[in-house]
Amino acid sequence: LPRIILVGRPNVGKSTLFNRLIRSNRAITHDRPGITRDRMDGVVRRKDMPVFGIVDTGGITLDAHAMVVEGPEGIRGFEQDILNQTEAALKDATAVAFVVDGRDGLLPLDEHLAAHVRRKGLPTLCVVNKVDGAEHEDERMAEFHALGFPLLAVSAEHGHNMNALVEDLTALLPEESSEEPPAPPTLRLAMLGRPNAGKSSLINALSGEDRMIVSDVAGTTRDSVDVRFTKNGKDYTFVDTAGVRRRTKITDNVEKYSVNSAIKSTTKADVTLLTLDAAEGVSQQDKRLMDMLNTRKTPFMILINKCDLAPRNALDQLRKNINELLSFCQHVPVLLVSALSGKDLHKILPLAQKIHEECSVRISTGKLNRAMEEVLTRHQPPVVKRSRAKFFYLTQAESQPPTFVFFVSDSERVPESYVRYLERALRKIFEISHAPMRLHLRSSH
Ligand code: GDP
């Protein structure tokens, strides 16, 4: 919060101003110099105005001022305190409200204090207090111009000009950037897989020592824990992990493997990692998940973990199984890894980056149409019901995942097999090897 500090000699009305600004009677005000010796912190809130902090320092007395000019000798502890407070408050101040007494007029001490404030180089407003439309107001104000600060006449006691005061103080604050400071970009990853497949072990191994458990907010379920870390200068976050458990703590198996909640976490992620257990093979639920990820066009990869446990031929068989299951989404990469031995773990994060980059591509219409010509020439569309569909135009409708629309004479005449050919060809030309992709045909006669 930006902070504006009230500075001025004792009894000019700083505490009353402070109370007006924070709209309470918190500070003890008294007609005796130096009665508010402690620093008070408040917050100024007004409708449709930026919020800022306000600090009331004790009054700086004549003797304390002497220290500024003449050194610390002869200063009583009391005034020394006040001066220290003011100095400390000035250190983290955004701006200064320099308060003077309009009835007393400009006193030498005001001038000395003003010089002190001016040296700080902070935006400053001179608040001339105890002026409430009294006679000779302009004349009284005139002498304060000598301080070199913009002036505003107010009466804290009678509430005169308080709105103008808030406005003028707000004007001292730096331009507020309305947007949140942008969070450094992070690649969001979802880790799916049945209990005991080794998800936690993998997250542990990938995130290393300097991970941060991010959203471990009290009262949320343990499913919503995010793990954030940096690897090779890049930022990653595993979303919705069930907490990164220690390897020894394997009794903790309350984790539910619900396909629905798994799918939900994939919607928060850029890339999803589905972990299978090499020793267990592909379960029914793994199959369902693969199916859903595919139909939802989720960018994902498959990790076959615990490769250290399975013999070579078993792994080959498992890979074959998976390839069959993935026959309609051959772009999905499969890695054989081991959280225990560390095998091929270094490939996981760069691959996730690549999938995400491919997902984000934007291809110009010019390039797409040149590619379309090439692809059509290489293999004409087949004759269906005695004629071929005509292809007019190709455009990219969306990214995440890349989505392309072919405008054709009659989409009914384009068989599924030809659409698959088109997809393979586009993937090759634009080097989209691992991201999901959507192709649409639109008839335009
Ligand atoms: P999660 O339930 O999916 O998070 O699985 P955990 O990470 O808790 O791992 C379950 C068990 O498998 C633990 O006993 C791990 O030590 C073990 N484990 C995990 N990865 C591997 C691996 O690559 N090889 C072997 N042999 N064991 C592993």
TrEMBL record:
Highest taxon listed in the record's lineage: Bacteria
Quaternary structure note: Associates with the 50S ribosomal subunit.
Keyword tags: GTP-binding, Nucleotide-binding, Repeat, Ribosome biogenesis
NCBIfam families: GTPase_EngA (TIGR03594), small_GTP (TIGR00231)
Organism (species): Desulfovibrio intestinalis
Xref: PANTHER family: GTPASE DER (PTHR43834)
GO biological process, one term: ribosome biogenesis
Pfam families tied to this protein: KH_dom-like, MMR_HSR1
Biological role stated in the UniProt entry: GTPase that plays an essential role in the late steps of ribosome biogenesis.
EngA-type G domain sequence ranges: 2-177, 187-360
InterPro entries: G_ENGA, GTP-bd, GTPase_Der, KH_dom-like, KH_dom-like_a/b, P-loop_NTPase, Small_GTP-bd
Entry binding sites for GTP 2: 193-200, 240-244, 305-308
Protein name: GTPase Der
